[in-house]
Design goal:
Layout: H1 3-13, H2 18-24, H3 29-36, H4 44-54, H5 58-61, E1 82-84, E2 90-95, E3 99-100, E4 103-104, H6 109-120, H7 127-137, H8 142-145, H9 147-150, H10 155-168, E5 182-185, H11 186-189, E6 193-194, E7 200-201, E8 209-216, E9 224-229, E10 233-239, E11 247-253
Antiparallel strand pairs: 1-2, 3-4, 5-8, 6-7, 8-9, 9-10, 10-11
Length: 254
């Protein structure tokens, strides 16, 4: 059952008008009408309110009888992992690592496999088994089935290459040339940098996906370079092996 039908069914079974439901979840009657016509889907915060109001899971509201998975990487999804469109509306088909702000973050299945292997492989699941599983599973997902339609126009790769050129042109001492950028979710790379006045500040958004990489310092030592960038800025920092003692090297608007 689609989201529009789920909301309509729950509302009518509860004996509420569209206006009454709108008042309980702090939206307009027109917003409820658009949900029930299938024009839009409630955002994450509203889905949580609807879930509490009707006593059902968010997955049920989204029309999923089973656990949702990202249609790019196959990761099981909950509401905290859903991606968003450019206008901030919810997209429950993808995780925020694979789709961010209306942009698909992967144009190469091989690149995605390399990222997933690093996060999934361990004593229980050897790298070779994880890699074989992903090579079999990923082609069955909607994004890769429809790759040419959804993300195969080369725009992401073109943007990455432009960004790589800008980063390398900075000529930061001790930092090797960037050769590849991968998607990085903000909550993993949003470090706190100490200012001269002793205060600390974060420059990134936990819920945004960036393009970035980690590089060994050419001079050796325990610190590495971290790069995070998007269409608006480039951030370069250094930090210890476990992200301790981060130091901001550069934050530059594009």
């Amino acid at each position: 059952m689609d989201t529009k039908n789920v909301i309509l069914k729950l509302r009518t079974e509860s004996g509420m008008s569209q206006e009454e439901l709108a008042g309980k979840v702090f939206v307009t009657r027109q917003a409820v009408s658009r949900w029930e016509n299938g024009e839009t889907v409630p955002n994450t915060d509203t889905l949580k309110l609807l879930s509490e109001l009707f006593g059902v899971s968010i997955n049920t509201l989204l029309g999923a009888g089973e656990k949702l998975i990202c249609q790019c990487c196959g990761m099981p999804l909950d509401s905290e992992m859903f991606s968003r469109e450019k206008d901030g509306t919810l997209n429950s088909s993808y995780c925020k690592w694979c789709y961010a702000g209306g942009q698909y973050m992967y144009s190469s299945m091989d690149d995605l496999i390399e990222v997933c292997v690093k996060n999934m492989a361990g004593e229980e699941y050897p790298e070779s088994e994880v890699r074989a599983y992903l090579k079999e599973m990923l082609p069955q997902l909607d994004y890769w089935k429809r790759y040419k339609e959804l993300g195969g126009d080369g725009k992401l790769e073109e943007f990455k290459q432009k960004l790589i050129g800008e980063i390398n042109a900075l000529g930061i001492e001790g930092m090797p040339k960037v050769e590849k950028l991968i998607p990085l979710v903000g909550s993993y790379v949003n470090l706190e940098y100490r200012l001269p006045n002793g205060l600390t500040v974060k420059f990134l958004d936990d819920d945004t996906t960036y393009l970035g990489t980690q590089l060994e310092c050419e001079f050796g030592g325990d610190k590495v370079f971290g790069v995070a960038a998007n269409a608006e800025f480039i951030l370069v920092s250094t930090y210890g092996r476990n992200c301790e003692d981060p130091e901001l090297v550069l934050y530059q608007k594009r």
